[in-house]
Design a protein that fits this description.
The protein is built from 8 helices and 6 strands; from the N terminus they run αααββαβαβαβαβα. With about 200 residues, the protein is α/β, with parallel strands linked by helices. Among the domains are: about 45 residues, RecR Domain 1 (Helicase, Ruva Protein, domain 3, Orthogonal Bundle); about 90 residues, 3-Layer(aba) Sandwich (Dna Topoisomerase Vi A Subunit, Chain: A, domain 2), CATH 3.40.1360. The radius of gyration is 22 Å and the shape is globular. It binds zinc ion.
């Protein structure tokens, strides 16, 4: 029903997460109906995306390439007000964004890209354990906060990091996992509730 070129746009848009065919069609038609400059600018921005946006050479966050041929360094790594002695290890860039949004992290980050999963052939080498070790030991990092998800792979990754960095005298901490804010205890799953009790902390007055 759709003209070929519009259909092509619909097909490409529906490759995005959370975008079904109907939504993709709505987006494509919206782009066609909006001012011509929107679609042209979007096309240009997309065409330049892979050339100019890369993983940060230091932490793995998403970063702009400032000068052609130069390594990309993200805004967090460039920020000298950040506490460089505290490093937060996350699995994915999206997790970094979520923690940043909380405003609770004043240190820097390290994005692993994936979690340890021996059954799928993802070992210490694949998660870049040596790179993390090298970064921590050569930058005078004093505390590493492991913020991997509370899943089997997330816990295994946290354990490996804590063992390897601990052997180098680095203090390794793990994010506490507990009951969601505003949530009822009766709806929390057993593991979450069990961990919340296990990692209880003393009230300070
Ligand atoms: Zn960075």
């Amino acid at each position: 029903m759709l003209p070929d070129r519009l259909l092509r746009v619909v097909q490409l848009l529906s490759k995005l997460p959370g975008v079904g065919e109907k939504t993709a069609q709505r987006y494509a038609i919206a782009l066609l109906s909006a001012d011509e400059s929107v679609a042209r600018e979007l096309g240009r921005a997309l065409a330049e995306l892979h050339d100019n946006v890369r993983p940060c050479a230091e932490c793995g966050n998403i970063a702009d390439v400032r000068e052609k041929g130069e390594a990309a360094i993200c805004t967090i790594c460039r920020d000298s007000r950040r506490d460089a002695s505290l490093l937060c290890v996350v699995a994915r860039v999206q997790d970094l964004f979520a923690i940043e949004k909380s405003g609770a992290m004043r240190g820097k980050y390290h994005v692993l890209g994936r979690l340890l999963s021996p059954l799928d052939g993802v070992g210490r080498e694949q998660i870049g354990m040596d790179r993390l070790l090298e970064r921590v030991t050569s930058n005078d990092v004093r505390e590493v906060l492991v913020a991997t998800p509370p899943s089997v792979d997330g816990e295994a990754t946290a354990l490996l990091i804590s063992r390897e960095l601990g052997a180098h005298g680095v203090q390794v901490s793990r994010i506490a996992s507990g009951v969601p804010h505003g949530g009822d205890l009766e709806f929390a799953d057993q593991i979450t509730l069990g961990r919340a009790i296990e990692h209880r902390r003393r009230f300070s007055f």
